[in-house]
Amino acid sequence: MSALPSTSARARAPRSGELNRLTAGELTRAIATGETTCEAVVRDCLERIETRENEIHAWAALDPELALRQARTLDRAGPPPPDRPLHGLPIGVKDIIDTADLPTEMGSPIYCGHRPPTDAACVALVRAAGAIILGKTVTCEFAGMTPGATTNPHNTAHTPGGSSSGSGAAVADFMVPVAFGTQTGGSVLRPASYCGVFGFKPTFGAFNRKGIYPAAESLDTIGLIARSLDDIELVSAVLELRAPAQPQPPARAPRIGLCHTPLWSCAQAETVAAIEDAATKLAKAGAQIRTVTLPDEFSGLRDAARETINNYERAAAMAHEWSLHRELISERLHKRIALGRAMAHAEYVAAMRLGESCRARLPDVFQHVDVLLAPCVNGEAPRGLNETGDPGFQAIWTILHVPTLTLPTHRGRNGLPVGIQLVAHRHADRQLFACARWIWHRLGTPEMIGYRG
Predict the structure, then answer these.
(1) Has 281 been annotated as catalytic?
(2) Which is catalytic among the residues 108, 164, 167, 187?
(3) 403 is a domain residue
(4) Is 284 a catalytic residue?
(5) Does the residue 34 lie in any domain?
(6) pLDDT of 3 higher than 80
(7) Which member of 94, 108, 218, 330 is catalytic?
(8) What CATH number does the domain containing 167 carry?
(9) Is 94 a catalytic residue?
(10) pLDDT band at 175; cut points 50, 70, 90
């Protein structure tokens, strides 16, 4: 495929009625230069939501007048100063993340109408940088497995993935350019892959988690879903208290480790084809490709993360709800909490030690490569809305605390998106971005991003 043109080459005068289709970078530049206004941007996003929400069901809470008031306040403030790099940018917030001016209901009747007194740290940071909180996006119950009503924009009979289902669907459907998600197993990358957008899980702890309802605190990570790598870098800089910098490609073609992972036998034909096609094209483009096989010890990571640590820590986190509102907890989550409460502490400690041991072996895994190319999902989004898909291909990297990205590079036999996953060493997030940009320019096209209907 031909290289993706640069952002500057793709720039065009924004037109009313289409502002919701622009990326975060395009929107903030257009607002800063006076080509459009914050209010016009919000109105176009709200119009898209009004048109499509009855099919997609991406939003848990919306207050259009509140969003428009935020926009008008920013417009009256004049041109944005350097400390407001997100000036006028609408952002969606997963509904387990606290917002002071919108309810945070956790996808549960237990918290119906719950109004936190303060913003979560990530919300406060983007708000201070000029972002507009457009609304709260649907989450699976307590960011777990019981889904809400959200559908996949590419085919509403298929799951959008979870638990950041509303965020993935809203970004893919051009309702909002960027949205927060959280990942305990695979809850950012899976919906991003299924919905055909970019998903990013940073190094564990990179984004402050104050104000996030915990699922499993040794795994929980705030992530971002967007329609541009530049947008992920832009918002990441704000969340890391850094000044945004011009995105840079790597100085040379990256060294890429082709890593099938111990779950390769679970990959469906479309995922196998996506990984093999990506490796072939990147090698032809000049990347150094070598096969990387994870040590045998890593084969236990999926169960350690999903079945052991997740159940045990979730059981502790939900002690209040279990004691006082057990009848309002879904059957699936009820079983998980019961398993966690019945678990021997030694089993939990063994899972934690496995994670620590495997993290200690990561320098050997990345010794000769800059980034790993690995499957992101089993295949296309499964049909039906009662399940959100298997998190296994994402969960092993979540417990390793490494940064991961999914790129919307391929489609399956049903025409649904199938992303590839890129993985870097811990704290090498910016290296991951640089390698991802080089890879995307050789594999991706704008037409692959989001739902174009």
Answers:
(1) no
(2) 187
(3) no
(4) no
(5) yes
(6) no
(7) 94
(8) 3.90.1300.10
(9) yes
(10) very high
